[in-house]
Amino acid sequence: MDLHEADLREMASVIKSQVVLEVSSQVQSLLDSLDTTTLDIAVTGEVGAGKSTFVNAVLGINDEDFHAAKTGVVETTTLPTPYHHPHLPNVRLWDLPGIGTPCFQAKKYLQLVGFEKYDFFIIVASERFRENHAELARAVGAMGKRFYFVRSKIDQDLQASQQRRPSFFQEVQVLKEIEADCTRQLKNESLENPKVFLISSFELHRFDFHRLQDTLAEELEGHKKHTLLLSFPSVTAAAVQKKKSSLRQHIWKKALLACIVSALPSHPFHLNIPMLMNALKKYQQHFGLDATSLETLATMVSKPCFELKNQVRSTLGRGLSENGVQAILSQSAAYGQLAAKMVTNKVPFLSNVIAGGISFVAAYFLLHTALDSFAQDAQRVLERAYGLEEEFQGSSRYPSPGFICD
Ligand SMILES: Nc1nc2c(ncn2[C@@H]2O[C@H](COP(=O)(O)OP(=O)(O)OP(=O)(O)O)[C@@H](O)[C@H]2O)c(=O)[nH]1
Ligand SMILES: [Mg+2]
């Protein structure tokens, strides 16, 4: 059993009080500040470019779902409409009205849609990038916000190209050409180093979605970075690992709260099991392993849901129950004496605020074990959902985004 040094250091630096209520409210507010972090993403572009479909795909919602952004050839978005993330209520993707009338005025448009509330803009185009896209990007930049270009419906381009030139068709080549063409168009409009991502909202696991996700996360800081990593669907092994690392950093806080609260007079138990169960349920949702997420993914990839469910093999993943949780806790407690000593040595005030280091260690290892298991389950589910083994072999420009490389 391993305790992370970095966690112990952070705990020692945070826990400076011997008063239980002070420590618990301090740690609780650290966790609250994560939960209350907002992320407002503006999705804009010309009418019919695929904005609403992109919003639904990122949120992991089927187009036919009641809460989905309306999509289709005649469903035009006329007002900025927020779509909330199903598990992170403070994350919103804003489906903005289409740009592109001949008398389009970027500054006016940005005022109308209330530009200041967005963290960044995603500008979607399904064909060429035009003057309006560039003008909008410049205006967004001038207002101190970041922008990213998404060239959508790439699956359609590939299909069309294959039909037109079946004997010369090379997917990698076509993708390179589209990307070069997009970049050239934007440079012609005097935009330096535009960030262009080729995406199919019907097949997020292919093309540049993972690169978009990485770029957005890299360019955000602190809690916003964490929130972005959690809110985007993990469609690659690398994305699953990043999500796991981001969640891992906060385990000690959850473990500590679970034993502090239970050490209070009104809680007779050494650990607050409902609190831990709640944390585990959230992990499941973040990895798309809850029943609704699995069903949605199955519909998206046109596979029977049981096939995906069968890939969830961890004990906790197959059935999250108090008994299962108790079993892991007592296992950790049995082996964790040494770790408990270490944690109380390195975090001097800890023994004053919890009933015993062993409860903390048990909760800490439960959450670590669960996170590892769920991440492995998530990888298996995605491999099965997207049939990655067959799909990406032999492609160098767009290799398998992680399941094989990792
Ligand atoms: N093949 C393919 N079709 C797509 C993709 N994204 C969107 N579409 C289709 O393009 C059409 C328009 O998509 P929407 O998402 O409604 O476009 P929009 O930009 O929201 O349109 P407005 O709200 O009218 O401005 C729909 O029929 C979608 O199914 C994609 O990645 N691939
Ligand atoms: Mg729309």
UniProtKB/TrEMBL annotation:
The keyword Iron does not apply. One of its GO terms (molecular function) is GTPase activity. GO terms for cellular component: membrane. The chain crosses the membrane at residues 349-367. SUPFAM superfamilies: P-loop containing nucleoside triphosphate hydrolases. Residues 37-219 form the IRG-type G domain. Keywords: GTP-binding, Hydrolase, Membrane, Nucleotide-binding, Transmembrane, Transmembrane helix. Belongs to the TRAFAC class dynamin-like GTPase superfamily. IRG family. PANTHER family: INTERFERON-INDUCIBLE GTPASE (PTHR32341), IRG-TYPE G DOMAIN-CONTAINING PROTEIN (PTHR32341:SF17). This is Interferon-inducible GTPase 5-like. It comes from Python bivittatus (Burmese python).
